[in-house]
Amino acid sequence: MKKFALLFLIAITGAYAQTEQVKFAAVIKNRNTDSIFIRSQRAIVKVMKADAKGNFKGEFPAEPGFYQLGDGAETTSLYLKPGFDLALTMDAKMFDETIVYKGKGEKENNFLAKMALEQETFGEKLAKVTDPGEQTKMINDLLNKTENGLKDPALDETFRTVLTQQLAAQKQQMAAQAEQDAKIAKMIGQQSPSFAYENFKGGTTKLEDFKGKYVYIDMWATWCGPCRQEIPFLQKVEEKYHGKKIEFVSISIDQVKDHEKWKKMVTDKTLGGVQLFADKDWSSAFAQAYGVNSIPRFILIGPDGKVIDADAKRPSDPALQAQLDTLLK
After folding, report:
1. CA-to-CA distance for 289 and 173, rounded, in angstroms?
2. I want to staple 101 with a disulfide (CB 3.0 to 4.6 A). Which of 87, 106, 126, 275 is the partner?
């Protein structure tokens, strides 16, 4: 399991009699800016400017729910409801590590701050683990720890309910991801599913056309920002291995309505390699066979048509070139 998604804190909507406002104050050392903001999912609800001593203070209405506090450089999650009176202290140079809240609402917000810090350091540890089973266990242990912390009756009931529901949803996502990872792992060394897709240069191209060569496949779409970010790195990799026993194949899973947009981007960006257009976007048989549910997704196939890596390294990852250097030596 390569990916670990942090909890996405949703807003809580509904009627609520706002008889009291939220009071918020902050003392920030080494601040990045003279302004801080509090944002809901819909809009910024409050901007506070530093006074002559560099302190922040404000009072504003806020529906019960989760918000973001930011200084223009970094952000952190907040839980607010009418009547909360919070005082924050932190050092902006060590943003997550130094956040401390005092006052009414401190327990919920210190819980969020601790959770964010734990997940940040956890992500670093998880990246060093390669065994999918161990990764799953690590994630499950972290979620259980957070869930146990939410049993504290001193925490606001709505806060506990929403986070507990999100943890349950995250566990379901984790189980689905583990199932997909297991499916991907079983593909290694097996004959790859094939494809027969439209080639930008004309005609139809099949996977079998590359027999005898390694094939590095990029599943992408014109609307995908992370896909576009990988293009310059992919072009450099293509240039480095030009003339070697490897083909670079990009398969667009754009919808049919964006066919011309695909052709224009291939032309405008001078995209190299073999540019193909899948027949049924996400539902294309090749994408389904590999369980592609997010892009960009990279696949590495051997000269014999067998899968080397069903979820290969990105072009921006130096590990890809190290792998190709070994295979193509």
Report:
1. 20
2. 106
**What type of residue sits at position 66?**
F
pTM (whole model) above 0.90? no
Residue 301, CA distances (Å) to 26, 76, 131 in order: 55, 42, 21
Q: How far apart are CA 34 and CA 251, in angstroms?
A: 47
CA-wise closest residue to 125 among 134, 113, 112, 115: 134
Give the closest residue to 184 by CA, choosing from 26, 44, 292. Answer: 292
Let me know: does 307 contact 299? Beta carbons within 8 Å: yes
Q: What is the pLDDT of residues 244-280, one digit of tens each?
A: 999 999 999 999 999 999 999 999 999 999 999 999 9
- Find out whether the peptide bond into 193 is cis, omega within 30 degrees of 0: no
pLDDT, position 227: 96
Strand 22-29 and strand 55-60: the pairing is antiparallel
Q: What beta strand segments (E) does 63-183 contain?
A: 65-70, 75-80, 85-91, 100-104
192, amino acid identity: S
What order of strands is seen across the sheet that includes strand 35-39? 44-49, 35-39, 65-70, 75-80
Going by C-alpha positions, the residue among 84, 92, 78 that lies closest to residue 24 is 84
SS3 assignment, position 297: strand
